[in-house]
Design a protein that fits this description.
There is one protein chain. It is built from 19 helices and 20 strands. It is of the alpha+beta class. It has 4 domains: 251 residues, Endonuclease/exonuclease/phosphatase (Deoxyribonuclease I, Chain A, 4-Layer Sandwich), CATH 3.60.10.10; 241 residues, no CATH class; 72 residues, no CATH class; 32 residues, no CATH class. The strands form 6 sheets. The chain has a 6-stranded mixed beta sheet with strand order 3-4-2-1-14-13. A hairpin with a 2-residue loop joins strand 17 and strand 18. Helix 7 packs across helix 16. The protein starts with a strand and ends in a 5-residue tail after the last helix.
């Protein structure tokens, strides 16, 4: 589906003819759409149904006062994909609501609200803006059917991505919070991307896009801004996204996975906030305080005394989205997947390599004769290239050792990083565009399907085959103890604070891009909200899907192993930091229950505090000595 402010319909007929064959649902907005243009709109595409409303529709104060009506909206619906559609009555000429049914599947339904909100700054324009938001709220309240997704598309005339001081931004934020809506443009766009730009390029903003219900966020993906469409005479860009109505709803909110099915759209780039480059006072002013206000607003919208898991999941999703969006005000970096080359390949080495290559090509064309001048010249340039490469490598090695020595005295973090880099040697991660698994070859963009199939099969448990007796199952007492601890005892604020401060800084984030620093810099109110959410999950024995998902990164085992075989890779899973936090809270409780049942065994040394490899070696040496003295086999 897409949304596009055509600015002037007559001048945009060519671009509509270009984009309509590519889009199933298209919402357009027009500055001065009149009644006599509606017939022309319907003739623009024979493959689409057209629902439209002009600026002269219903009552319009500007027409009554003798002025020219502003606005006008229209929605195109592809005929072959629509089973039934109905226009929903609305009192504003700026808003067009359509109820769409794609098939008999109860999930394949949608309430699409196409709107063109006022852009003026006068008091009358701001009043009209609030009136339009109230009308949209009324539409949503009257169509809150079970599982009916609602999408609000159009020109909102307020930038939700970049900082601005428009009064209408406050109205829009309040409307989104009260209606539990999320902005797809805010979710997927980064500062520097725009949906509107004046002809002279002086004014740019992201005012076009989609608002969707937060609980249905998983149904929408791949938001795209088309800045390079030919024949575009408008100062707005086409904004599109994919709606997948068969995706799970409400309580099954999905987070993106690193092993998603490949498609042509570019995945959203993961970012890393540079928290160390920001002062504590700036973090408090630009992150902690705004998130505290968000937490206060969420507290006013939920039932604190009896919070159901569905509302708790929504609150956690909204809070994490605001945390991530607010942290983007700070410097951040994106992964650079371009090859940087080896440091020893300097200009001198490159020049000698090109010379040797040129002489080799000449020698090759001559038939590669031996013992002639051309052959001797090739050998000379080859030796020259190798000598320059050895000298450059030695120089880089000395430079690296100097950096390690300097860092050992001043920067311990850099020192350990350089040491780790030195130990890793020159082995690089193998880059392969081909994967071979189960007699099938995955190439190019389909390689993601191969990874998905491999790790899916790896996660399926196999039938156990024990050489000895089957291990004893957990006792009923143990099950009772752990269940009662997890279900009855509520999490306290002190437990959560201890868990937050035990998080390690600088660790990689999970699928939700929330890092430990996002939680460490939260205020008191936001932490209390997380306590309430976690207690709601525990009371209902419920775990949201967003806390279960993880990013699986395949790392090659090296040592000359075939890079095309997925079995030669080690899967590293990055889980959600919010999930880690809950685990840190529950871990002490479960450990105390396990110790009461003598678990783990006192001879288990793996994953135990205070049990080092040296102690394990001493115990093994003692066992060997005792068995030798007793003449027992080991």
């Amino acid at each position: 589906m897409g949304t596009f402010n055509v600015r002037g319909f007559k001048s945009s007929e060519d671009i509509l003819s270009y984009i309509l064959p590519k889009i199933d649902l298209l919402c357009i907005q027009e500055h001065w759409l009149q009644d006599h243009n509606l017939d022309i709109l319907q003739k623009a595409s024979s493959e689409h149904h057209t629902v439209s409303k002009s600026s002269e529709s219903l009552t319009n104060l500007n027409i009554i006062s003798g002025g020219r009506g502003k606005g006008g909206v229209a929605t195109y619906l592809r005929k072959k994909n629509i089973k039934e559609y109905t226009e929903v009555p609305c009192q504003s000429s700026r808003i067009l609501a359509t109820k769409i049914i794609l098939s008999d599947n109860p999930r394949a339904r949608l309430l699409l609200i196409n709107c063109y909100l006022p852009c003026g700054t006068a008091s009358s324009d701001q009043e009209e803006y609030q009136t339009c938001l109230a009308e949209i709220t009324h539409l949503m309240d009257n169509h809150q059917e079970n599982g009916l997704p609602i999408v609000i598309a159009g020109d909102f005339n307020v930038d939700l991505v970049h900082k601005n001081s428009k009064k209408t931004l406050e109205y829009m934020r309040s409307f989104m919070l009260s209606s539990h809506l999320s902005s797809m443009t805010e979710q997927h766009c980064t500062p520097g991307q725009f949906t509107f730009q004046t002809d002279d390029g002086k004014k740019r903003s992201s005012i076009d896009g989609f608002l969707v219900q937060s609980v249905d966020l998983s149904q929408y993906s791949d938001l795209s801004i088309s800045e390079d469409i030919p024949l575009n005479t408008s100062d707005h860009y086409l904004v599109t996204m994919i709606w997948s109505p068969v995706m799970p709803l409400a309580h099954q909110v999905q987070v993106r996975s690193s092993l998603h099915t490949a498609n042509k759209a570019k995945p959203t780039a993961r970012i890393k906030i540079k928290w160390d480059e920001v002062s504590r006072s700036t973090i408090r002013e630009c992150y902690t305080v705004p998130i505290e206000l968000v937490a206060v607003d969420i507290f006013t919208k939920i039932n604190v005394s009896e919070l159901p898991p569905s509302e708790a999941e929504w609150a956690l999703l909204l809070l994490s989205q605001k945390m991530l969006a607010q942290s983007k005000e700070f410097p951040y970096s994106k992964p650079n997947r371009k090859s940087r080359g080896k440091p020893e390949w300097n200009a001198n080495v490159s020049s000698s390599y090109q010379e040797a290559k040129h002489v080799w090509m000449s020698w090759k064309k001559a038939g590669k004769p031996k013992g002639v001048r051309l052959h001797n010249g090739y050998l000379h340039h080859k030796k020259e290239f190798r000598r320059n490469l050895r000298q450059s490598r030695a120089q880089e090695h000395r430079k690296h050792l100097t950096n390690i020595e300097d860092a050992s005295l001043s920067n311990s973090k850099l020192f350990h990083y350089l040491i780790k880099k030195q130990r890793s040697g020159n082995g690089s991660k193998p880059q392969t565009d081909t994967l071979e698994y189960k007699d099938r070859t995955y190439q190019g963009s389909l390689i993601s399907d191969g990874w998905k199939q491999y790790f899916t099969d790896l996660a399926i448990p196999l039938a156990p085959s024990y050489d000895c007796e089957e291990p004893s199952k957990p006792s009923a007492e143990l099950k009772t103890n752990t269940s009662s601890i997890l279900e009855t005892a509520l999490i306290t604020s002190k437990e959560l604070d201890n868990a937050i401060f035990s998080l390690k800084r600088g660790k990689a984030s999970g699928p939700d891009d929330i890092s430990p620093e996002h939680l460490l810099y939260l205020g008191e109110t936001a932490r209390r909200l997380i306590v309430l959410i976690y207690n709601s999950f525990l009371a209902a024995s419920y775990t949201p899907q967003s806390l279960k998902d993880g990013l699986v990164l395949p790392l090659h085992k090296g040592k000359g192993k075939n890079p095309r075989d997925p079995k030669n890779y080690r899967g590293i899973t990055l889980t959600s930091t919010l999930c880690k936090l809950l685990e840190l809270v529950l871990k002490p409780r479960i450990e105390s229950s396990l110790l009461q049942c003598d678990i783990p065994d006192e001879l288990q040394f793996g994953f135990q505090k205070g049990h080092s490899c040296l102690l394990t070696s001493c115990c093994l040496d003692l066992v060997l000595e005792l068995n030798t003295l007793s003449r027992k086999p080991t």
